[in-house]
Amino acid sequence: MSVPPAPPLLLASRSPQRRAILEQLGVPFEVVLPQFDEAGADAGSDPKSTVRENARGKARSVASVAAGRPVLGVDTEVVVEGRVLGTPGNASEAEAMLEALAGRTHEVVSGLCLLTPGWEEVEHEVTRVSFRELDARDLARYIGTGEWEGRAGAYAVQGRGAALVERIEGDYLNVVGLPAALLVLLLAARFPGVYGFG
């Protein structure tokens, strides 16, 4: 008896990294761009709450076209000493962010929302990343790659940004852009065997 194919998740994201991780996990998906204005973390607000609400908002914004399929929304922020760094707008901002991360441990905080017409799961994952000390030459070399563009915290750990990192505690793929271990747990619990987990 053949097993029916798993219904593709609807990924509410523009991120090529998130698409690549789902492909790596063997989870079928289709991309639908979210129609949602992300809330930035205000001074003193909890980044975990912010990313959870943004992930929920992204998922809900495309739920009307899901036709019953599960929808996945994700939001990620880089937090150092309580401050959310966001995405740099130019090379000077990127350099300032990398200087703030150099020689310190920061957190990559992701919110994840998995929803269907019958239920909604909203969780978060935190991975701790320690950067090595960086001098002016290190900073200039990395800024020159342009890899910082469009990246929360101004680096891409799956690229040349790996050379900036001394240690990672937790889910590496969360730093890339999708808390994969958390997603697998949710899929295993909510859809046992359907996506190859549980």
Describe this structure in words.
The protein is an alpha/beta fold and 198 residues long. It has one domain: Maf protein (Alpha-Beta Complex). 32% of the residues lie in helices and 24% in strands. The protein has helices spanning 16-25, 47-62, 91-101, 136-145, 172-176, 180-190; strands at residues 9-12, 29-31, 71-80, 83-84, 105-115, 120-131, 165-169. Strands 1, 2, 3, 4, 5, 6 and 7 form a seven-stranded mixed sheet that branches. The chain starts with 8 loop residues before the first strand and ends in an 8-residue tail after the last helix.
Count of beta strands? 7
SSE-based structural type: alpha/beta
Largest sheet: 7 strands, mixed
CATH architecture: Alpha-Beta Complex
CATH topology: Maf protein
How big is the Rg? 17 Å
- The quaternary structure here is single chain
Distance between the termini: 20 Å
Order of helices and strands: EHEHEEHEEHEHH
Residue stretches low in confidence (pLDDT < 50, at least 5 long) are none
Tell me the count of domains.
Answer: 1
**Proportion of strand residues:** 15-25%
The DSSP helix count reads: 6
Mean pLDDT value: 95
CATH level 1 class label? Alpha Beta
Identify the overall geometry. Answer: elongated
Helix percentage range: 25-40%
